[in-house]
Amino acid sequence: xxxxxxxxxxxxxxxxxxxxxxxxxxxxxxxxxxxxxxxxxxxxxxxxxxxxxxxxxxxxxxxxxxxxxxxxxxxxxxxxxxxxxxxxxxxxxxxxxxxxxxxxxxxxxxxxxxxxxxxxxxxxxxxxxxxxxxxxxxxxxxxxxxxxxxxxxxxxxxxxxxxxxxxxxxxxxxxxxxxxxxxxxxxxxxxxxxxxxxxxxxxxxxxxxxxxxxxxxxxxxxxxxxxxxxxxxxxxxxxxxxxxxxxxxxxxxxxxxxxxxxxxxxxxxxxxxxxxxxxxxxxxxxxxxxxxxxxxxxxxxxxxxxxxxxxxxxxxxxxxxxxxxxxxxxxxx
Length: 333
What we know:
Elements: E1 8-17, E2 22-24, H1 25-31, H2 36-43, E3 47-49, H3 58-73, E4 82-86, H4 97-105, E5 111-115, H5 121-134, E6 140-148, E7 166-176, E8 182-190, E9 198-199, E10 222-223, H6 225-247, E11 254-259, H7 264-274, H8 285-288, H9 295-305, E12 314-321, E13 325-332
Parallel strand pairs: 4-5, 4-6, 11-12
Antiparallel strand pairs: 1-7, 2-3, 6-7, 8-13, 9-10, 12-13
Helix pairs in contact: 3-4, 6-7
């Protein structure tokens, strides 16, 4: 849809950041009872990036990603009116990671806040940014999805520890004179009925009775993999079909479906049920794992810099995460 005020919204710049350290399946074979074959078969993951906690974290990755997006947009941090950051691994509850990023990059007095929507953090955040610009209140917003899942992973557990990596992706979105540009359709939805299937307890009293014997330590992610898999396979197909119907676009018109990298089998199942070729769905889970809110922005930056998506293309961002939350965002670039 075009803005009622006759302007559009442009993704002016894109950036991302990942740690240097690589954690391979061979490394996991030395840590827990697993094999490379078992991990690849069930997840599609071969390696993932993880922070050095002595010098890196969600804050540093977020800074690097937004800095890259600003450079790509040829803008200064002082040009931003607002910074929105999706994360569940902020180093502190207060101040928000977004506030610290704003200070570090010199964006003050831009507003800044974090969005806690788990793996949907980036897609929720870009949808919020689009809406705020579209209503006329803001002109230029920095959007970041960043998570360091290694900091909330129990590496003695062989089922979950193999899944996660650390990353950040960012975009700068700005008001544009072309009313055809921007978000054509978006959803941000949630249903907490299955919250116990994916959660991060910090106190014993918050653990459901059925999960009392779970050996994963407090402060680390817990997940019922089968329940989440079943939910995600159905929901991802549904939201893509709904977005196509709402926009009137065909799947062929979408340059790329840029999905949260949760599990290769989930993405492949969705693609096959939609009858779409592999090249329509970007995949980097094999080399980066599941980086929660960092994954969609990271994928977009890799596609953007490789020239595989370009100005004038239609793209669809899709994510499903803890909450349970799900979100879509269809853009004309």
